[in-house]
User: Fold these one by one.
Assistant:
Number 1:
Amino acid sequence: MERLHEKPRCHIVLIGLMGCGKSTVGKALGKLTGLPLLDTDAVIEEQVGMSIPEIFRKYGEKRFRSLETALLRYLLEHQAPESCIIATGGGIVVRPANRPLLRRLGFTVWLHAEVPVLLQRTAHTANRPLLQDTDRERRINELSSQRAPFYAETAHWTLEVGHSEVFEIAQRILERAADFSDHGKNAFCGGV
Ligand code: S3P
């Protein structure tokens, strides 16, 4: 990981559907590397002073997506002095403008999980407006097929997470990130 520390703005960016483990894997990556973890949902909640469900209720999804875009632009323009781990909200890839921004931020990893895994992991969710008052299985199936091409377009690398242990997943990402930063040429650190 030292190589990542040495390079400016070599963030590791985690993308994927709700329940794929972005936050838990992000925390494990933070522990293993000592790098700070930035959770885009948490930053937006703090900026607005409301929870995600409240933001959706009061302003709607479209406004929330604009806040995500603004945050990505801010992160690109105001480079953090050191690399960090960025865990994103599951729908951040929906806006076409966000996809190249995410790739430019750093090494972007799609944590891919099958629908049954996602269903199990979102079973007790109360803070995800897109899964409230709906047939969760149908909704996750829909989101999975709608968004798969967007994740694929955005990710530098896809990792099948299944039921793997969280530190094992984090370790695999770090190995790949180090390779990527050595051999990725323009694909890393501000490239696409
Ligand atoms: C969303 C995912 C959520 C959050 C919001 C919308 C989505 O983040 O950003 O509820 O559109 O998939 P998580 O993926 O961290 O649950």
Number 2:
Amino acid sequence: MKRRHDEYRSRIRSIPLFADLADAEIDMLDATLTEAHVEAGKALTLQGHAGRDFSVIVEGLATVIRDGVEVERLGPGTFFGEHALLRGLPRTADVIALTPMRLLVAGLGEFDRMIREIPSFADQVREADRQRQRSTAGLVQH
Ligand code: CMP
């Protein structure tokens, strides 16, 4: 059991978003995040639809498509789906798996709990959300 915990902690800490977490915070994630495997081509979010989950990419690559245009590619250590959950708004982009992917997924309640209880997670996710929405707003104006 201890070994399983240690392995989980070091696996989670290898993800930059979670690198600085305390053991107790990581143990909370263990009970909160679900691992998912998805096939290439799967639509992980759809622009304009309601959002019910947030994902961290462990393996694989996804494209972010907004208004039919690719705005970003996301790989291991990055995350997506924060915007709809943080703001209670529809998805701002399609996120499509370009390769088979391994994800750590949090539902709405779990995500809210992580935001409330893990300040370093909340700060990074909020900052990424601000930058992403700013960069995409810039694209739309040009
Ligand atoms: P959400 O709007 O919930 O669902 C689509 C997701 O795509 C969004 O959250 C972000 O996680 C991601 N996304 C949207 N725009 C960008 C961008 N410009 N760069 C990176 N990721 C983005």
Number 3:
Amino acid sequence: MTSAKTVYNFCSGPAMLPETVMKQAQAEFLDYQSKGISIMEMSHRSDEFQAILLSAKARLRELMAIPENYQILLMQGGASLQFSCIPLNLTGSDPALYLDSGYWAKKALTEAQKYGSVEVLSVLEEHPEKRLLDVSVTESEHYSYIHYTPNETIDGLEFHHVPSINKGPLVADMSSCILSRPIEVDRFGLLYAGAQKNIGPAGLAVVIIREDLLSRADKTKLPRLLHYQTVLSEGSMANTPPTFAIYLANLVFGWLQEQGGVLEMERLNKQKSQLLYQALDQSVLFNNAVATDSRSRMNVPFSIDRNLETHFLEQAANHGLLNLVGHRTAGGCRASIYNAMPKEGVEKLAEFIKYFESQYV
Ligand code: PMP
């Protein structure tokens, strides 16, 4: 059997977590802070859990330099429930604008269309390569909000700048790129992310919202758990929160601080992704079909001759390189290289790509 250390997990999410975090969670699993019980078995109103919740929010605020006039909400239902929460909470008399960059952007806008008027602007060029387009909105119209997906997890497309549309608060689905680089939070009205890539276990969602947007929705018309102001006023405990997921998120945030925060993550993520794209670009057998200026630092999709794909995936797994299969809707292969993926994992994959190719070319 391969030992835990020699395995690298390239799953797109739930994704690998930092080894030190997993070890700490393991050490504390049965007996949290000498209380004789697990954090999973403690009341969410206990002093111990309250300290964790406050710490998680404080660490996230520090890591992302979140200004005072923004609130952090910890919610359930992953990023997908936010596809509903956002239109329910933010739609006013103006339509919403959705930038369509692919699979996840479409999922978000399809949900929003159920609740109000939505305009869609395609920002994806498919040929000859996939590329995210510069956005320009010329009409003088104002939008309730403008939604976009900074990183398309399946197609491996990433905006490397914030679209400059000054016609309503910008809302971003940062599920697969949050904490991977510094961002200017004050350019956004709302940011959200499902946790299972750069934060912690699946199910939890982080929402960062500018205070003036909290009061848009009518409390009496929305489900309690989906109303941002209610979630805030109940301290992200409008019902029993996912305590273990929040505990792990707090550990991941602490780990990020120890690593040097998002600036250091950006430096490493640039290095890791360049290493992998270089290996793919130098190969004749493998291909990445995204224009260089739109390539994601987090998700690297690639293709290989269909006849060799299964063999590649099997051999990679035998070398400890796991979960390189592409999304079920896209096919092909994909390496997700979030913050917790060590550089050695990417080096090993790049070497393996060269080795595999040397058997055929
Ligand atoms: N948005 C993006 C960009 C994603 O990558 C994903 C999940 N892969 C989602 C939304 C949906 O997240 P969840 O499964 O937590 O609802």
